[in-house]
Specification:
By secondary structure, the protein is α+β, with helices and mostly antiparallel strands. The strands form 3 sheets. A 5-stranded antiparallel β-sheet has the order 1-2-3-5-4, with helices on both faces. Strands 6-10-11 form a 3-stranded antiparallel β-sheet. A hairpin with a 4-residue loop joins strand 2 and strand 3. The protein is globular.
């Protein structure tokens, strides 16, 4: 009986947090990051005045990125986040995340850790796109939630609602993602926003997957000026998932349907959604709004003394309007 390979949980390059029942090698390769770990450590030390060495580090792996939490000899903790290749479009995913954080920090009171350094170009000494930031204060909500009494939970819900409300009141000129004005995007795809920022293509991974086909429809990633255009973009994702030739129809279970069936359904869905959005109550509540796409307990930090106080919200990757 063959033994499972020994996994080094501190291996900075490979995914080590688990395995997949299907396509394990493919999934693992998609989360491999080839970079200079020593250069990353040196950069962290350069950014932290008074520190001379890194005493320890913890590797934290998510679905779309890998984070390293470094502890320095002066007691400071720094987080470095590197995206996987499946995280979204190269350069744009990192540029948008940093731009979103910087915009929110300058226009709201939402607690977000400060960014010390970042690069959306992998052609740097580290060899990867990266965001280096302060470690968020407090503890993760999921550690405190089971011990919170009903009153504390209600007060926390009020706190998070007031926090997110700050994003909901911001007016945006289009649907898409926030970028810096000098982001590496074609000028025709930049919608003017406030000084220093623009709205550009949606950087969610689903719009940029390598398995997309554009035989039936052209790429439609935004920015979208209105609700009609945005809904068309949603339907176009479906069209772009269909290959031009149904080469695997004999191997596909009958309940998955043929390409012709999918085309017919998508055409019907386009007609239906465009009729639905004509309703005044939908149009009145469908203004472009910034949404954190991964607002789970692990990404919300609260005070260790008072869990109703939010000390930080993290993981703004792929946040969109």
């Amino acid at each position: 009986m063959s033994q499972a390979p020994v996994i080094d949980s501190h291996d900075p390059y490979n995914y080590t947090s688990g395995r997949w029942l299907q396509q394990d090698e493919l999934e693992g390769n998609a989360r491999y990051i080839g970079f200079d770990f020593s250069a990353l450590r040196r950069k962290v030390l350069e950014l932290c005045f008074g520190a001379t060495s890194i005493t320890s580090y913890e590797k934290v792996e998510g679905y779309c990125n890998r984070a390293f939490i470094f502890t320095l000899d002066n007691g400071r903790r720094i987080v470095a986040r590197l995206p996987y290749s499946l995280s979204g479009p190269p350069r744009l995913t990192t540029n948008s995340e940093v731009a979103t954080i910087r915009y929110l920090q300058s226009h709201t009171y939402i607690p977000i850790p400060s960014i010390l350094d970042w690069s959306d170009d992998a052609a740097n000494p580290i060899g990867s796109e990266s965001i280096i930031m302060e470690h968020v204060a407090g503890v993760r909500l999921h550690h405190r939630w089971p011990k919170m009494d009903p009153a504390q939970r209600i007060n926390f819900i009020g706190s998070i609602c007031e926090t997110i409300k700050q994003m909901a009141t911001i007016e945006f000129p289009a649907y898409g993602s926030i970028y810096f004005v000098d982001a590496p995007i074609d000028s025709s795809l930049k919608q003017a926003f406030v000084p220093g920022f623009c709205i550009g293509p949606n950087c969610e991974p689903r719009y940029w997957e390598k398995t997309r086909y554009y035989d039936f429809i052209k790429p439609n990633r935004g920015p979208w000026p209105d609700l009609t255009a945005y809904c068309s973009g949603l339907i176009d994702i479906g069209f772009s998932s269909l290959p031009p030739v149904d080469a695997t129809s004999s191997d596909r279970p009958w309940y998955q349907g043929s390409i012709e069936t999918h085309l017919r359904l998508l055409k019907s869905a386009r007609l239906v959604i465009h009729e639905l959005i004509k309703a005044p109550r939908i149009r009145d509540t469908a203004e472009p709004t910034l949404l954190h796409c991964n607002l789970q307990m692990q990404n919300i930090h609260v005070s260790d003394d008072d869990p109703t106080v939010i000390t930080g919200i993290i993981d703004w990757q792929s946040t969109t309007v």
